[in-house]
Fold this sequence. Notes:
- The chain has a domain at 27-32 and 77-295: Dipeptide-binding Protein, domain 1, CATH 3.90.76.10.
- Helix content is 22%, strand content 17%.
- The chain has 10 helices and 15 strands.
- Strands 8-9-10-1-11 form a 5-stranded mixed beta sheet, with helices on both faces. The protein has a 4-stranded antiparallel beta sheet with strand order 4-5-7-6. A two-stranded antiparallel ribbon has the order 2-3.
Amino acid sequence: MRKMFTLISMLALASMILAACGGAAPAATQAPSAATEAPAATQAPAATEAPATTGGPKSADPTTLTLADSAISIDTLDPALAYDTASGEIIQNTYETLVFYDGEATDKFVPVLAESWDTSADGTTWTFHIRKGVKFHNGDELTPTDVAYSFQRGLLQGGTASPQWLLSEPFFGVGNDDISVLVDPNGGLYDDREGLAAADPATLKSACEKVTGAIVADDAAGTVTMTLAQAWGPFLPTIAQTWAAAMDKKWVIENKGWDGSCDTWQNFYAMQSADDPFSAIENGTGPFKLESLKQDEEVVLVRNDDYWQAPAQLARVVEKAVPEAGTRFAMMQTGDADWARVQVEDRGQFDELVGERCEFDVAANAYKPCEVVDD
């Protein structure tokens, strides 16, 4: 039986970083009812800055958010493959999806790379109107072709180590949880790239064309149209997750990713993180860019000054692996860390550092009045 993974939810690190962005997500719009045009997106007010505090340690550098974690283990930065929280935290702040959750709501969504979307009366056809003027970190402009390619690539890359089964059933039909099942309905080719490559070329091409025919870009119209095998209630929640992030087709090909041809897709099937050329590099559209990644040691993100929304207020985010709780405590005391992972048994010690408690109200998009914490 295939291993079932827990969906990546609203991540703590992502929330902390995104709350520091100068521009908030666009105003909420729910998917329209059948045959109703989605309203145009509008920008929400800029996120309120955290109020100044008077008690407790001060940050050594207010422009940098430094996180002292007990360990860092990034599996892969390839959105199509990443299925762990640590990887998702980085991807969620460097790449973007068509839509995202509206605050804490699980049934409402805001437009991100899609300005709006329409659905057919039977719920099987979704048309996304792609935002103009968005650039990847390397300067390439986002196009509908990039979006369609990203979904196609993910489905064709497939494999049981990835989250792509969550998209396979909407597009291929219930029970068809991997692209390999379209080649061998008996399920004998799961994670078998060599066996898949030896399959009938016509069958391989037919499977690929089913994917490319179901996800179609129209650059002139600025749209991507997706046709599902059946109506799928959780479709928007599924594509709001990191595995549905948009990648730069040209950049992916330049870095030895799938070339977009239905004659070659099988060579990239069931990619593993150790062999994935995108496990340690990124080129998203998000508010932060990857500056460096030292596995098991440190991750550094820097502000994307060309972000299509207002640039983040933070200049850098540094996450360090600090195994010793005492060292993490000392870093918090001196202001060399702004956040630290605290084990239950160490909470009392860390509570002594709290001078004021300032909580962010997601619904109001503003901070509540700070409360002084008594000694």
